[in-house]
Design a protein that fits this description.
106 residues; binds iron/sulfur cluster; 2 domains; 2 helices
Length: 106
């Protein structure tokens, strides 16, 4: 009986800790650094945070949010990881020369 009570209390405490920690991690994730424009890889890829500003972009609808390398599939995040640029996050409105359209769901 005492063990059940102890396990119950332990479960409650772990649940409470998770409720405190999870939002903190979410906040930290929300404030991850954006890629820096002086990053050599960012320059080499011709990344711009506003796709409309790129002279190289041919497809006027192409931007990070529709790229297969963009980390946010929900379309709700203000920025997300790009699989090609490890130094920071990119904006959904961005674009670079390695853009590759994400396959559409069947
Ligand atoms: S590879 Fe795709 S997601 Fe990454 S910066 Fe280029 S366009 Fe954006």
């Amino acid at each position: 009986m005492e063990n059940q009570r102890r396990n119950f209390l332990k479960t409650i405490m772990l649940g409470a800790a998770a409720l405190v920690v999870a939002p903190a991690l979410r906040i930290q994730q929300a404030f991850a650094d954006l890629v820096k424009s002086d990053d050599p890889l960012v320059k080499a890829l011709g990344y711009v945070s506003d796709a409309k500003q790129s002279k190289d972009r041919k497809d006027k609808k192409a931007q990070c949010s529709g790229c297969q390398f963009y980390g946010d599939l929900s379309g709700k995040e203000k920025q997300a990881k790009c699989q090609l640029i490890p130094s920071g996050e990119v904006q959904p409105t961005g674009w670079c020369r390695s853009y590759s359209a994400r396959a559409k769901k069947a």
